[in-house]
Amino acid sequence: MKGHFQLKVEDILSRKHFENTIVIAGEEGIHRIVKWVHVVEVTNIRNLLNGNELILSTGVAWQEDENLFISMLKQLLENNAAALCIELGTYMTEIPGEVIDIANQHQFPIIIFQQEVPFVEITQDIHSVLINQQYRMISDLENYSQSLNKRLLTIETYEDILQIIFSALDVQIIFRLKDQQYEFVPSISSQEQSSIIHCLQEADPLPTDHFAYSPIYLFGQEYAELYIYSKELPINEFDLLILDRTSTALAQHLLRDLFVEEKKRVEEFEWLHGWLAGEHPNESITEYLVEHGIKNAANDAVVLIAKLTVLKEKPSQDITYLKLLFRSVFEQHGCAVFSVEKRNEIIFILLNNRTKRNLKERITNAIKSLEDSEFMRKQNSGKIFIGAGKFIDNLNDLHKSYYTAKETLNIQHKLTMGKIYHFYEDLHLYRLIALMNKHIDLQELVMEYLLPVIEYDQKYNGKLLETLTAYLQCNGSKQETSKQLFIVRQTLYHRLQKIENLLGEDFMDHEKRVAIEFMLLVKDYLTPSHTQRRMDLNDSKSFYR
């Protein structure tokens, strides 16, 4: 497959019916590639060409008008035709000097037949060569694909795949994993590498005649880059097809490596579980991180717990894919990631891997990116909740973040808010409510303040509780409340009067208002969300079943 054959103008000059031809202009362009043959006897051809056509003509359409000839030639140049072959004697006896000058200027071959020739036979001859060339290309491509797929079963490193594409194309192969250095196959000097990288960066956008590029995507994100570079010959269609097949094989191999790596991480469960329980001293933690290539990690970290409420036909495969997806996204946002599976939860330990200490902001952006991923959008049969614990600045305190992450998740399942994630530090009063709920009958306390409104809504569907909540959230602004509830001011006034009659004229006084607002949060906490009710019905069905 090296030097895969491409038909050029110079090859056609040696074929039948071209024995007595003369290249009268643009001889420097006889290396142009020919992909098809087209007979042209009209003057407007812009919409008839796709590029690289060998044009055959008698010149009948422009024989008496030099300007038409020049116009036609410019159209050929604009559409990247390969060459123009003109039969002299029948309609034309000479080629105008200006036409020759333009052709020489653009290295566009003009070939003349000095006698009458059968265009049909020329077309059939060249097309048969082109069709055979296409057939050979398809056959070689299929053989390459089959050979590559077989070798994928035994290949151990992606470097082996790079050697395979180099053997097939005999061009410079350039490969780069995310955030790593460029690799070159075959190996070349650092000076040559720098020169190619400079050309690569200048050749934007790709592809160009001498560069071609194929991104390698894993989990919807670009994971690696594969380039081919041909210094002498331009990149052809066959090269691009081989590049595409190889990038697919590389993606499969890299994904397999990630799965194997993730399986190995299962063996780390016991140590990580001990870390979450606060059993390891600082020296042991530092040693563990160094063993895993993390030498200069910052001390700030946080624990995230992802709770899975989905039931799938292939749960173990989805769990592995989900862990890889989370790892990939969090690493993209500057976190070193360790994970532990526990029943229907995945516990993620996130260490700040950057000097900038905006860990919460980056984690929030990462979670939003996860929400938008294709995998998450397909989770129609269930939901994933994420609880983030307390942010710590000492890795020996990781257990504190873990326990608060569990508390965050427990609180989140009781809330009616639609977010799939919460941070411990944002729950504020809900943390106090959760603590109080362990020792006090909060339901009785709620009824003491809100029972009249609740009973009115149950009897008349008056939406007073919803109105009260919005009115307090808007700090007593009637205009903002009516906008938030999408009701007219008169309706709002009527509801507020009812609330005042039920709760008393002083319901907006400071102390009573604070108590009512607190009771509304307690009611939200005590009222099972739709998701929680569904989970209660299915609590006996394990995610891994």
UniProtKB/TrEMBL annotation:
Pfam family, any one: PucR
InterPro entries (alphabetical): CdaR-like_regulators, PucR_C-HTH_dom, PucR_C-HTH_sf, PucR_dom
Annotated PucR C-terminal helix-turn-helix domain residues: 464-521
All residue ranges annotated as the Purine catabolism PurC-like domain in the record: 11-129
Gene3D superfamilies (alphabetical): PucR C-terminal helix-turn-helix domain (1.10.10.2840)
The protein's name: PucR family transcriptional regulator
Organism: Bacillus canaveralius
